[in-house]
Amino acid sequence: LRPGRARLFRRAGPLSGLVNRTSSELYSPLVRSITGRTLVYELVERSLRRPRSAADFFEGQLRQGRTFGRWSALAFASQRPMPERDAVFAYSTGALELLREAAVRGVPSVVDQFDPAQADEAAICEEMDRWPGWAKQEGRIPPAYWDRLRAEWQSATAVLVNSEWSKG
After folding, report:
1. Distance between the two ends of the chain, CA-based, in angstroms?
2. Among 100, 104, 167, 115, which Cα is nearest to 145's?
3. Residue 159, helix vs strand vs coil
4. For position 64, what pLDDT does the model report?
5. Nearest-angstrom CA–CA distance, 32 and 140
6. Three-class SS of residue 160?
7. Secondary element (H or E) of residue 158
8. 115 contacts 94 by C-beta, under 8 angstroms
9. Distance CA 5, CA 63 (A)
């Protein structure tokens, strides 16, 4: 959120967490965000689709990632990016379309892989086998999710991991 708008969400119940999603150091006319559009999409997604399984949940993540990726790529392209001046930093699962657009334009890009991906799923499945009924949602993550992550890694100039754990 832009710094002045964060205060609007201070008493907004489930949206009050947005108060911490701002930084006066990052706000500038050069920084683009689609917070409002994404927030509306997320509210609609959560109210209309209740995931019954891990596959349902991650199919929703894929829908959201593709939608956000398309919006980001369109916003990026409309700014007429230049490789000598611009760069892209994006988070995994919502970046594929943007990373591909950056590659076409020769703009360097970094995708942040914030978790250990399939290594994380393997550890969780091990715990689910050990503790039946423990998981909030049973089932495996669909292959399409992993395919999207791999495509993002291949499309980016670099992949950033936040820790040894997320390096997997």
Report:
1. 31
2. 115
3. strand
4. 87
5. 35
6. strand
7. strand 158-161
8. no
9. 27
**Residue 123 one-letter amino acid:** A
CB 69 within 8 A of CB 92: no
Q: What is the pLDDT of residues 61-84, one digit of tens each?
A: 898 899 989 999 998 999 888 899
Q: What digits encode the pLDDT tens for the residues 104-160?
A: 999 999 999 988 888 888 888 888 889 888 777 777 889 999 999 999 999 999 999
Which residues lie across from 34 on neighbouring strands? none
CA distances from 27 to 5, 22, 31, 33, 124 (A): 12, 8, 6, 10, 38
| C-alpha–C-alpha distance, residues 129 and 138, integer Å | 10
Distances (CA, A) of 102 to 34, 39, 42, 44, 157: 18, 24, 25, 29, 9
Q: Which residue has the tokens 């290594």?
A: 119
